[in-house]
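Input for the complex:
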Amino acid sequence: MNTNLIDALFVFMLAAFIGFEVIRHVSPLLHTPLMSLTNALDAIAVVGAIVLVGEKKSTFATVLGVIAIVAATSNVVGGFFITDRMLRMFKTSRPTKPQLTKP
Amino acid sequence: MTDFAGSQYLIEIIYLIASALFILSLKWMSSPATARHGILAGEIGMVLAIAGTLLHHGIIDYKWIIIGLVLGTGIGIPLGMVQMTAVPQRTALSHAFGALCVTLVGTAEFYLRTPNVPKFMMSVLSMEVILGGLTFTGSLMAAGKLQELLPQRPITYKGQNLVNLLLFLVAVGSAVYLVLHPGARIFFPIIVGVSLIFGVLLVIPIGGADMPTVISLLNSYAGLSAAAMGFVLDSKLLIIAGALDGSSGLILSVIMSKAMNRSFSNVLFGAFGQVQASAAGEQEAKPVRSATPEEAAAILLAANKVVIVPGYGMAVAQAQHKVRSFMTRSPKRESRFGSPFTRWPDACPAT
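Predicted:
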């Protein structure tokens, strides 16, 4: 348990730095789609909710879990969907909008 | 037992691939050329993560899982169909749902596990529900403000800092007490309730112009709460995805507030920063002037230099062709594009 915990802390630290680095040079054009994408990824919590509901440990837990699955799934689906629509919009405008100056 | 071990390995490998896809997704999303790959990677990663979870050997009943997934999809599709100008509030609302999920799972885990909860577990569990709770109500408030269901202007009152600070201390204090005495279940609802109130009060003093940054920051909080959930459930996938979101959300809020010329500390500390800023003087007063087409033409004719700063509003209005022809026809030699700032519909009305 203790080594697991330490492992988990290391994983957390490394992932946090990766998140930091990959986003640092994001093109300002993509701020809104990026936020929308990370919003969809946030809903990864649905994984926890699925296990909670599937294990059926108590009625209380199952009820909360089902609400959680509904909420998180709508977040995933809506998030990816709108990000995709946004990008499609950018795509059509790209040929006439050449490389914008980077700050 | 060997069966379990086998499927367990399979699940972990699926999670490993999903985590890699999430990282690639963010990486690709930060450049316009690869952004489409980014969303695809994210989608595949999410599908893999959910599929892998369904293989979990502890799951004995699929009925309610399926019902939940189908219902959620049914709600999610209309949420993805909104007008482009409503994207900010949609994102905020979506955050609220994600945070709700984290909070509910945290609550259920608490009641399933108490009183035999190790100290570390209890502290991350409290962190999960505090962050989840404040993100839930905070995002709802942000969505309400952007949709103009609530007044956009900052709402401040006397003693705001003190009230917020006290609430925060109550939440953290209860969490600490709960860590030391896991049997004191009564403190758990207090933590949840106080976090929910705290989320509302945190966003109330922030004005409409700072909302995009607030949403990005709440995104970061939601990520951190998902990571905390990962510690509780001992799931590396959740920890990685949560940490990625947590740090990228934070850095994105900093970048955005810089791009929009706003003070980040103002947003980060809500009311705490508000008072400092007003004490610092009129630095925050950055005038905005809007004009009718005729007025604009007159101003442009009189101007020596013209800088056009394209943004989200232009993209939404699909006005880039017009802007381009305007640029080429402009009599001024010194017309040029400025650096594109992230603008949201409320700051840059699409016409």
